[in-house]
Amino acid sequence: MKKRAFLGKGSRLGVALGSIFGTLVLVGCGDSHDHDHGSHGHAHQAPHGGALGMLGNHAFQIEIVPDPIRRELDLYVLDGGAQHFVRVGAESIEGTARAGSREWQLSFRAVASEATGESVGNSSLFSASAPELVGLREFVVSFERLELLGQVYENVVIPYPEGSH
After folding, report:
1. Which PROSITE patterns does the entry link to (predicted)?
2. Residues with Cβ < 8 Å from 154, sequence gap 6 or more?
């Protein structure tokens, strides 16, 4: 009697599984997207759990993160994929926060770190005092003008917590 391999060439189960796999590969996930594609899609995760704002065509991301313990807002400058810190030469970044009819001026100051070697004027982390904001569930941070590594971005708006991408 001739023995057949369970999933070998010509086995019915092997042919069936191959057909199913081939169909899944060709169909993919279609054009309707309400899920994350991981490394091959355009969904970026904020590395610190904040709100991301895209600058340019994936040139940079700005992440806004409230710190309720310090009562401050942190601003991280990240690459377009929100995976790597990008050090910039600014000593401060000026912005405005809005919640309803209230408005606050924010001055994000560069944060030096011995652990990372970052210094004022060569940092990816900026922090602003914001005791009124850290307890709010929703607010908007905007920047009239951001200059990052020689590139200028105007009228940048980042809603918290959803971000803008």
Report:
1. PROKAR_LIPOPROTEIN
2. 144, 145, 146
